[in-house]
Amino acid sequence: MSQQSIDLRGVSKSFGATRVLEDIDLSVKEGEFLSLVGMSGCGKSTLLRIIAGLEAPDRGSVFIGAADVTARDPSDRNLAMVFQSYALYPHMSVRQNIATPLRMRILTLPARLPLLGRLLAPTAVLAQIDTDVSKAAETLQITHLLDRKPGQLSGGQRQRVALARALVRQPAAFLMDEPLSNLDAKLRAHMRDELAALHRRLGATFIYVTHDQTEAMTMSDRIALMIDGRIEQLGTPDDLYQRPATLAVARFIGSPTINLLPAEADGEGRVTIAGQSTSILARPGPLTVGIRPEDLETGDEGLAAEVLRVETHGPDRFLTCALPTDRSTVTLRQGASARPARGDMLKLRIPPERAHLFGSDGQRVPARITGRVAA
Amino acid sequence: MRRVLPHLILGLGAALMLLPFYWMILTSIRAPAEIFDVSLWPVPRDFSAVQNYGQAASTVPMARFMLNGVIVCGGILIVQVLTAVPAAYALAKLRFPGRRLLMALVIGALCIPMQALALPLFVGLARTNLLNTYFAQMMPFFLSVFAIFLFRQSFRSYPDEIIEAARMDGFSEMEICWRLVLRGSLPSLAAFSVFSVVAHWNDLYWPLIVVSDMAIAPPPLGMLFFSDVESGANYGALMAGAAMITAPMILCFLLARRSFIAGITMTGVK
């Protein structure tokens, strides 16, 4: 399978007065699985469409390998795209759907015509196309569906056909625009595994657009988190989860969402979180502290909190607790062995090494921890 | 009662609509003596179908009129579809400056009646010595804004993602337009074909203006010649002729009925 790197340099795009993308630089390595993640309207789909050539950037360029393809037509970029709606040709059988990219590339216009084409197309070429289609169908285990029409297939089957159609042309890279979002939850989890396995087997470059952080976290080598037309943070799933570069990233990644508490560093840099002094040192000024639900600890001392709700998720329980200080709530993730009840009073401790500090501009603030034990 | 009533009302409406046709058929099988009988009884006292139809077929070249009708209607339909489909595709799916203005012009053009253009068209055809040709009968109808409008409405619902997938697969815009988008709108093609063929098959106004040669006259004009020849006396034969030229249209509608209705409801034209 051919594979190529993809580079975006200074890509900007506006629709009318709305700036959708602002000066995007992004390098996707050969064979990498990179996800573009963000809320709807953050520009991730537009970025993918610019890579595909379906949309032209106002400024900036797109490189595939070493070649500048900014001015090329979508079909000349040798990229395959899997759409959210699968975009199968409704009047063609599965076999014809998968064969279409090859027929379009190999056969001349007269040889593609419905009736005349059968006489004009060289037999050897048609046989080769047939072999390639069968191989792609085998890879995705849809050989038994080849003679059906897309209308007779289930969502998961259509998804496989769309993947086979992408696969058959041996593209420089695969572009996927929320390909799993029309599937039910169970099938989605299953297809996620299959996509990851497909990526490993093909070793091809994947660019995957999703609004679902779980998909991005589970499959990607790297994630580019986009907010308002900019790449807010680019890194491995662990980077984004463990060291969010901004408050917005911390908020977006993680489910349940990260707990955010107001904090302040005094003149000496000592950080006070919700009125409790801690052993964290940071640049003086107002701060926001982020703490993941699984990092909050309960103990004999610390922030007083009342349990408002207990949600059971099999192995975990999520506790929603109210802080009496400012009526905000925090979420706590505990193992199933814990047996808290509604109305219980807890003491919450924030382990200093697990706290993420953000300044008033939303940027991560470096922190140090003193030797003293604090709440 | 509640279930029967709608059918009863619809049935009455249908009967009212079908009465002229019924009368036409009835007259075409009656003898001249019975023509002015007001009875609706289907069996005539003197069954004269053979005589009437025979006369209609033998006095004037009915087959020739029919062939002319096929040539004119076929020619018009082919050029209309060839021009309207790409225009409708562009208006429905492509982004370009002036699209809204062009669409407004299409809608505006829907409001201009054929009669308003008759004189300039006639003068133009007369100056170019094209009167009394098939071309003169077809030319004014080659560009159908109604077709553009109908197809545009129907093409709009074609999924954009399929068009984009096609662009990535290497389809040209013309291939997308004809092989994918029109393929997905076959009911509206059927609906438009019925509209167009029926309208031009039955049209008397324009052929009357540009055709005086009986050899290229379409069926309604032929019927007019026929009634002149017979000085309007033999209604039985006249109605037999009318029944003969109406038959292909009824057949055409029955064949395309399902698609026709799907096409109309799908595009929200009626």
Summarize the structure in words.
The complex is a heterodimer of chains A (375) and B (270). Chain A has helices spanning 44-52, 94-106, 109-112, 117-120, 123-139, 155-167, 185-202, 213-219, 237-242, 247-252, and strands spanning 6-15, 18-28, 33-37, 59-64, 67-68, 79-82, 173-177, 205-210, 222-227, 230-235, 259-265, 270-273, 276-281, 285-291, 297-313, 316-322, 329-335, 345-349, 356-358, 368-369. Chain A has 375 residues and is of the alpha+beta class. Chain A folds into 2 domains: 6-247, Rossmann fold; 260-369, Nucleic acid-binding proteins (OB fold (Dihydrolipoamide Acetyltransferase, E2P), Beta Barrel), CATH 2.40.50. Chain A has a 6-stranded mixed beta sheet with strand order 6-7-8-3-9-10, with helices on both faces. Chain A has a 6-stranded antiparallel beta sheet with strand order 19-14-11-12-13-20. In chain A, strand 15 and strand 16 (316-322) form a beta hairpin. In chain A, helix 2 packs across helix 5. The longest helix of chain A is centred in the middle third of the chain and has 18 residues, at 185-202. Chain A is elongated, with a radius of gyration of 26 Å. Chain B has 2 domains: 1-47, no CATH class; 58-267, MetI-like fold (Orthogonal Bundle), CATH 1.10.3720. Chain B has helices at residues 4-28, 49-59, 62-93, 99-110, 114-127, 134-138, 145-155, 160-169, 173-181, 186-202, 205-210, 219-229, 235-267. The longest helix of chain B is centred in the C-terminal third of the chain and has 33 residues, at 235-267. Chain B is globular. The model of chain B has no long low-confidence stretch (mean pLDDT 88). The chains are: A alpha+beta (375), B mainly alpha (270). Chain A binds chain B through residues 49, 52-54, 73-75, 79-81, 83-85, 87-91, 100-101, 104-105, 109, 112, and chain B through 159, 161-162, 164-172, 175, 180, 183-184.
